[in-house]
Every structure is written in structure tokens, then in C-alpha cells.
Amino acid sequence: MDVIQAAKKIINQKSLEGNDDAFYVMNLEDVKIKYEHWVEKIPRVMPYYAVKCNDDEEVLKLLRDLGTGFDCASKKEILQMLSLNVDSNKIIYAHTVKQISHLKLSAEKGIKKVTFDSEAELYKIKEFHPNSKVVLRIRFDASNSIINLGTKFGCNPITEAPKLIELCKELKINLFGIAFHVGSGTTDFGVYERALDAVRKLFDYAETMDIKMKFVDIGGGFIGKDLSIFDDYAKSINAGIERNFPSSDIEIISEPGRYFVDSAFSVVSQVILKKHHEDGQIYYYLNESIYMSFLIAHLYKEQLEFSIIRASEPEKEPKDKLSTVWGCTCNSRDKIIADRLIPELQMGDWIVFHNMGAYTTTVSTAFNGFQNLNIFGSADL
Ligand SMILES: *Cc1c(COP(=O)(O)O)cnc(C)c1O
Fold first, then answer.
1. Spacing, Cα 134 to ligand 1 middle (Å)
2. Same-domain check for residues 255 and 288
3. How far apart are CA 381 and CA 379, in angstroms?
4. pTM
5. Whose CA is nearest to atom 4 of ligand 1?
6. What is the pLDDT of residues 109-152, one digit of tens each?
7. What values do phi and psi take at 154, rounded to 5?
8. Are 248 and 316 contained in the same domain?
């Protein structure tokens, strides 16, 4: 069943119950297809799914059963994964700045792999998690990405990383490997290969100090909307691995977030009011918001893709009209689509927004008393 058919069925079921809330349609099969594609294309790289991207329990359980690991960044995410019986070896605490109580928890729970990118964090780890396997995060930015992470995280691989490697030696901390994150959502495919070259140099430098690292973490960044571009990532990653880490003694992981979930979720939202504004545009008001599922899309100015489900079939083909689509909160910046030509809609129609699985459910707020949406999967159909 495609997403439009599924959405129509749910709309009908809900209307019988008098429920007109917006909702998600989730397709777990899509997550599974992504996993199988990953294993086929980059078999050397074990994915550790980034929980912050979408922490839906069914998604997490599916990935657990498929055998992925998990990237957690807080106490709550760690406890969530442990409660799903994920082995502590399959968790990486991949936040380079850890609150002490969270770091202590990771030590107590046997989560050994932790990342860092500064001296101060290394001293903290030495004190509160001395038996960890530390992973040094370097900065290696893609030339383009939706979310650049390098401005906040990662040390300079040339000027700072060697000093931090020396400090590990001095503090007798187990330096396990190197991590990077090129930025979330990139089409600079070659960046992975270049980053792996930089990681190799640090492996070589560490070896001059008798430190034998065993682990490379290539981070996330992979766009998940369009599976056909995955070959381009794979080519770059496989070339980087073959040249720099041909031996299978080196464990290679990745922390994909959006790749697994983006296309698996759609948001289905209703037009609750239509207004012809004096500025000549049509204003539509939805029961969704930039304070809910559209927060990240709004912050990073992502173009939304959508389809329409009409409450009743129009007599003739609706014309494109200059329109603004507003969110449901009382805030006037709550604009989901601004000044765009879209086919004319009527009150009661539904808009299905595609590729809404990444950074949507986990960032949605309860502002103005609007709640997180229900998620419908195949079991509900
Ligand atoms: C957010 C994040 C990820 C996931 O990134 P995607 O671009 O969604 O793949 C992975 N690792 C770290 C450290 C992150 O902060």
C-alpha cells in the first residue's frame, strides 16, 4: 500500500471516531530496505543508528533486530537503548561534551566507546570513566550540508589532534580510534574518502608513539530521501577504506541518522481554514506547525515535498495559486510554506508531506498545547 492509500484509509477510520488530528504514516519496510542496501553497498561499515534523529520504539527495535548498533548522546537515550536490551558494546556515546552524571552513568552501564575533542573532556573522562575506549573526533567538513556540525564539534586534525593523541599517551587512556562527522545531509560524496585519508595520517602518527588504534567512525550525513545517490557515498567510502584500512582488523562504524528514517515517515495534515487575503494570496492554516514536525525544515530552509488528498473531487483541475501555508500556533512566524505556487485547495483537504522521518518527532514541541502526533504503521491499516 503506498503512503497516499494508507493516509486515506487512516483519514477515513479517524473521521468515524471524530478525530481530525494530523498524524504520521510510518513505513518500517522502508527502514529495512535501507538497511539491506547499506549492507550490500558498504559491507565493511557497521551502522550505529543516531537515536536523536527519530527515537520511535518500533524503528529502534527493528534496527536492533537487524543488528545495528546505536549512537546515543544523553543519559535518556542510553537508558532507552539499554531498556530495549541493546548490548552496551553496541552503543557509542558519541557526544564530545558530556555532563558528568551522564558520563558516570555510561561508565556504570559498561558503555566503553565515548568520543571527545578537547583536553578538558579527556581529563573528565580520565576521572569519571577511566576504563573507557576513547574516540577522538576530528573536524572534517563537507563542502555542503544541511546542518554543519564542524563549527561546534571536532578538533583540527592537523594542529590539535596530534596533541590530544599525545595527551592520551601521557594520561594512559585507551585511545581506541578516530571519528568525524562531515555534516548532516551532504552531497559532497568525496568528503568521506578525503576524511579517511586524514584519519590514516593520525593512525600513523599514533603508531610512532606505540599507540595502536583499532576503530574508525565515519559519522553520519547521508541523505535518505533518494536511495539512488547512495552509490556515490559507497564509492567514496569504499575507496577510502581500501586505500587506508585494507585490513579487517580495523573496525569501521558509521552513525547514520537521517539515512534510515527520512523517507519512512510522512506527515498528513489537514487544511483547517482557507482565507483569501487582501495581499492577493490564499492563506491556508494547517493543524501542524514549525514548532512541531517542521522545526528543522524551517530552521534550515528545506524545501518541502508534498501531495494532496482532497476531501471531495473538484469539478475541474485546480489552478496553481500563490499561497502561504500557516502553522497552527498563535505565533506569526509559524509559516510552513511561504509565497509558493500550489494547486488551489479547499478547507478539509489534507496535505501529505513526504520525507518527514528525520529530526521531526524528536524536536517537536508542545507549544500552545498542541501535541506530538500519533504515528500509524502497517499494523494499523
Ligand atoms: C546527529 C548526529 C549523527 C546523525 O547524523 P545524520 O546526518 O542524521 O546521519 C551522527 N553522529 C553524531 C555525532 C551526530 O551528532
1. 18
2. no
3. 6
4. 0.97
5. 257
6. 999 999 999 999 999 999 999 999 999 999 999 999 999 999 99
7. 95, 135
8. no
